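[Solved] Which block belongs to which protein?

Original post:
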Amino acid sequence: MGSSNYIAKLLVDGYNIIGAWPSLMRTKQHGGFEAARRELIEVLANYSARKGLDTHLVFDAYGVQSPSSQDVITENLSVCYTAFGQTADTYIERVCSELMYQTKARHRVIVATSDRAHQLTVIGYGAEWMSAKQLEQDVNLAYYQARQRMARTSKTVNRSLFSGLDEEAKAKLTKLRFGLR
């Protein structure tokens, strides 16, 4: 995704994405927010691993009286729940600001949200912006490419020595294998 001296970080506004992807909207309608969150976490865990991204999926506290928390799901994905009164937007902006001023490492920061006002703010911090639709398309493309690689790999595995032989040689080998003459 980036050159070796860059750390590619993807910050995702969770509820914004749930509200923008038709598949997640259907999940939310049938199973509630928790089911939609779980589905998005699973999708982003796979996507982040395939793309080699350090992904932070951020959910607003939604009026819940609790401190912020962060759950590490995989080495590529963390899920962050903001503190009471803090929005996902302010959390993401703070992270962008902190990364902009770090001098030790160079960061490629991508923010996934369809919130237009938030888009302008994060671009001002030097982050790239990706719409919810763009993220959905990239997730689907990464999934499709992984499936294609798996299909090619399984075809290669099935190309054994035996499968490359003509029918007469296969028959002789089968007889030998079962001790027939």
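(Second protein starts here: sequence line, then its structure tokens.)
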Amino acid sequence: MFESVKARLERFFREHTRSDPRARATVLREALLEAKVGLGTMRDALAATERELAAERQHLAAAERRGRLAAELPDPETVVLAERFTVRHRERVAVLERKLAVQRDELVLVEREVAEMLTEYRAARPGNPSESIEAAWRDLAAAGADRPGLGLDDERDPGVDDDKRREHAVEAQLAFLKKKFGKQS
């Protein structure tokens, strides 16, 4: 998933020069949101692999224990069968350990790339932060999300600063994208 986001970004930057900073900031923002959703998916996959590895280690321990018990029996077939299950579980544990290491390494790389994208987005976004907040709400409204506080009696709360508004807008966009892509838990 993350690779498709990077490919779209690279294609956009090849096709468009830096002459349109708003378009660049918009593409970066969208890519950043998708990348954050992708990061969440990667973290979920990592956690699933950790759970799978823990379960497989328990199966291996049980198979080894059964093998020791089978060795005490005078039946060589049972011993061979127990050894075969032990080997299978040991191989599966080794594969899952390698998979987990690769997933962790990949997560570190993607987190670094997302941090770089965030830095680039912050540098590329035009205007003041309240304009980007309004743009985020417009994007959400265009996508069908509701914006709280649009009544005629609503006033801008002076106690809430622009950083909190921006953070709320980003969280709302992220929640909307998760819902859109079926990642809402």
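Accepted answer:
You had them paired correctly. Confirming on the second one: Residues 128-185 form one domain.
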